[in-house]
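ok trying this again, last paste got cut off
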Amino acid sequence: MHLSSHQVQSKAKVQSVRGKSPVSPRQKSSQSKAKVQSVRGKSPVSPRQKSSQSKAKVQSVRGKSPVSPRQKSSQSKAKVQSVRGKSPVSPRQKSSQSEAKVQSVRGKSPVSPRQKSSQSEAKVQSVRGKSPVATSVK
């Protein structure tokens, strides 16, 4: 009794080393078929589900998310704006954000007009080798 159980365990161990799970002959065929389909890039699905899943996979490869026709136009428009360096914003926010972005590219932080003169003056003084100090101390 002990010898027979040892033989069964060793057989199961050999199958697991070779990359196969120890299964019964009735389960073996269905599992191997599922493994082959996953290697080829297909999920093991029924024929009724196959067409819808393959269509969604093709759309994701082409850079499109599988969406309904009502959502498609708004999502593609937002994607094009993000590629061009613009965030998808409403028309009311668009002008203020683009103005702040242009100021940051030119080396200036987006500040209000009241703060702008004092900051640029301090930057010029630091370039000339002087620390930005008050005029009364100077």
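PB: full thing came through this time. Residues 93-97 have pLDDT under 50 and may be disordered.
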